[in-house]
Automatic annotation (TrEMBL):
<protein>
    <recommendedName>
        <fullName>DUF2867 domain-containing protein</fullName>
    </recommendedName>
</protein>
Length: 154
């Protein structure tokens, strides 16, 4: 898979006691639910996100949108790449899923972003110093792990 040209911001990893094919539907469902929660569309509109609402095919696939994101790549069992932009940033959140043995997976979430101008720099500072981004990504990964290991898709 090609590396996104945006500057690397961070990467978080979790290991899951389930194979990639079992993890994939949980990843899709958790991402959909997490980015479609109450207030997400309002925030996306507030910052003038390019993709302010949920639309397109379901389950998530190329062309689907979530508030603040569009699905750029959806390769079942391997990669889900979300892209987005708003007045303060252009960004990508890419989930990569790899087998780590016969019944175990490694799930990585890589964030890349650029924050142009003074307003973008202030937004970056708030995003990174608040801890909200790291907390949110780690919580999302933990939810995928928990649901994949329990085995039920809601």
């Amino acid at each position: 898979m090609p590396i996104d040209p945006l500057p690397h911001l961070d990467e978080h990893t979790t290991f899951i006691n389930a194979g990639p094919d079992r993890v994939w539907p949980h990843l899709i469902d958790v991402v959909e639910r997490s980015f479609s929660r109450f207030g997400a569309s309002g925030y996306a509109r507030l910052v003038h996100a390019a993709d302010p609402v949920t639309s397109g095919p379901r389950p998530l696939s190329e062309g689907s949108t979530l508030p603040g994101f569009h699905v750029a790549t959806a390769i079942p069992g391997q990669e889900l790449a979300l892209r987005g932009s708003h007045r303060f940033s252009t960004y990508a959140l890419t989930f990569r899923l790899d087998a780590d043995g016969p019944t175990r997976s490694r799930l990585r979430a890589e964030t890349r972003a650029v924050f142009p101008g003074l307003a973008g720099g202030l937004y970056r500072q708030i995003l990174l110093t608040s801890g909200g981004h790291v907390f949110g990504v780690r919580r999302l990964l933990a939810a995928v792990r928990r649901r994949s290991e329990q085995g039920s898709v809601r």
